[in-house]
Amino acid sequence: MDPKPHKSYSDQLDLLKRRGMHVEDTMSALALLQRAGYYTLSGYSYPFRLKAPGGARTGQFRPGTSLAQVQSLWEFDNRLRSSTFAVVQHVETYLRALMGYALGAVDPLIHRKPGLLSIDRSQDYPKWLAKLDRQEADSREDFIIHHRNNRHGIIPIWVAVDVLDWGGLSYLFSFAPLIVRDEVAQHFGLNAAQLKSWLRALNVLRNVCAHHGRFYNRYYSLTPKLPDRGHGDSLEFIAPLKDTTFAMLTLLQHLASFTLGANPRLLPATLRSFPTASGMTIGSTGAREGWESLSLWHP
Fold first, then answer.
1. The pLDDT of residue 53 is above 80
2. Phi (first) and psi of residue 50, to 5 degrees
3. pLDDT for 90-133, tens place per residue?
């Protein structure tokens, strides 16, 4: 099968118009297509497509749909993704420091001594260690080079954690002795099983943000273990919709509330900037009515 033929920006705009999208300013619309890309914008225009009798989306847009509405959603998503990633970085840094300290207190090379670890799935550990070896070998960070040149390549855990990303830290947490898992989880007001599930679920969120994927109305296959009732109104609020972006943001906001240096106002302010004039509602994120009154969301 041959690929679809290439279309110029003008051809792309004409196609949107034929499908019923209103375009107020041709030059601005062409600039938007050039800046964002047709298929990036198509993800934001998809909810505006009419449905066929069987429920499938057609290629035609609902009457009154404008490119300005689609642009406002795309711009909001960019703000939300940027704010989320900024908070993720603070939490990730704090988690890295906590784990490096707690594990190092057991043994400086605990990550290379599986007998000291409590590994949930044995097949994961050698893969994780091989990836760490590659990251250390490829690293050009001064602290890694120092240990490579002056310490015979012996890199203690509190140094090694600095080359791990969120996914690597998540696996390291699952390998850690139970006493260390409990100690780290308590810093976030959780138990070890809860934090483990949160780290796995939020790794997907982090990757979406890092790779600039559509974010605000995404659903997630990995869902978190939540504390029992009475642990906070915000976590109880997301229990029926644990697979939504708002649920993941609530997890992150909870972790950030325990993280030194994190800005607790950043995510609430960004969510409040949802473009209601777009024709969509903030419910598309998974946020239900009353979300703004929750304790985590008006810090």
1. yes
2. -65, 155
3. 999 999 999 999 999 999 999 999 999 999 888 999 999 999 88
Highest mean pLDDT pick, 45-54, 76-85, 121-130, 136-145: 76-85
- C-beta separation of 251 from 200 below 8 A: no
Report how far residue 34's alpha carbon sits from residue 7's, in angstroms, rounded to the nearest whole number. 12
- Phi, then psi, of 45 in degrees rounded to 5: -90, -15
Secondary structure, 3-state, the chain: CCCCCCCCHHHHHHHHHHCCCECCCHHHHHHHHHHHCHHHHHHHHHHHEEECCCCCEEEEECCCCEHHHHHHHHHHHHHHHHHHHHHHHHHHHHHHHHHHHHHHHHCCCHHHCHHHCCCCCCCHHHHHHHHHHHHHHHCCCHHHHHHHHHCCCCCCHHHHHHHCCHHHHHHHHHHCCHHHHHHHHHCCCCCHHHHHHHHHHHHHHHHHHHCCCCCCCCECCCCCCCCCCCCCHHHHHCHHHCCEHHHHHHHHHHHHHCCCCCCCCHHHHHHHCCCHHHCCCHHHHCCCCCHHHCHHHCC
CB atoms within 10 A of CB 19: 16
Residue of 205, 238, 240 whose CA lies nearest to 220:
205
pLDDT of 136 strictly over 80: yes
Residue with the two structure tokens 């106002």:
265
pTM higher than 0.70:
yes
Q: Tally the residues of the chain.
A: 299
What's the CA dihedral at 233, 243, 247, 282 to 10 degrees? Answer: -110
CA pair distance 50, 62, nearest whole angstrom: 5
